[in-house]
Give the backbone structure.
Amino acid sequence: QVQLQQSGPGLVKPSQTLSLTCAISGDSVSSNSAAWNWIRQSPSRGLEWLGRTYYRSKTYNEYAVSVKSRISINPDTSKNQFSLQLKSVTPEDTAVYYCARGGTLAVPGFDPWGQGTLVTVSS
Amino acid sequence: QSVLTQPPSASGTPGQRVTISCSGSSSNIGSNTVNWYQQLPGTAPKLLIYSNNQRPSGVPDRFSGSKSGTSASLAISGLQSEDEADYYCAVWDDSLTGWVFGGGTKLTVL
């Protein structure tokens, strides 16, 4: 079955860049039917979809309006993983970050999810 | 404020049937299919219902989903103590060109 394993630091200083990676097993980041998403959860903002990357003859990226100017999601086909970079973070970016497969016609729901990474933005 | 509106809490006794609502608009629920997630304390959300009313393999048939117009509902019949969790609806929003979630409903089994 498909499994997602997240990695990355749990503490980031304000104004710096948050970077997380999601390693995929049981599927491919280059799949023509899946999409690879980042979602975060905080008490103040609830569950918030941040964006996704997917491959349909070429790589596409789509980002939430709320973070569009600061976010980048990139696939790494050599390692079968994808990454999240969020620039210029503030304490409001403190949240549990999840990666998840899905949100497409072939895989309509987000399934599975990574284990989650609590990222705290603090000096 | 979430784009999708859910009641913050719901409750029921073991064996009862409980429904959780999710209200949206023409650009999200009115145009696209709805998914539901269950989140147990300290864990990642788990897909419970997809495409309005489909259950992934392994999800008991006590869980069911429906959609009408710009609203959707999750029903849980034969309530069990292990159903105590947070439940979220989610749908693609055509205006925002992104996925949106409800604020979540905390289900308590009395």
Summary: Chain B touches chain A at residues 2, 33, 35, 37, 44-47, 49-51, 54, 56, 88, 90, 92, 96-104 (CB under 8 Å). The beta strands of chain B are 9-12, 18-23, 35-39, 46-49, 63-68, 71-76, 85-93, 98-101, 105-109.
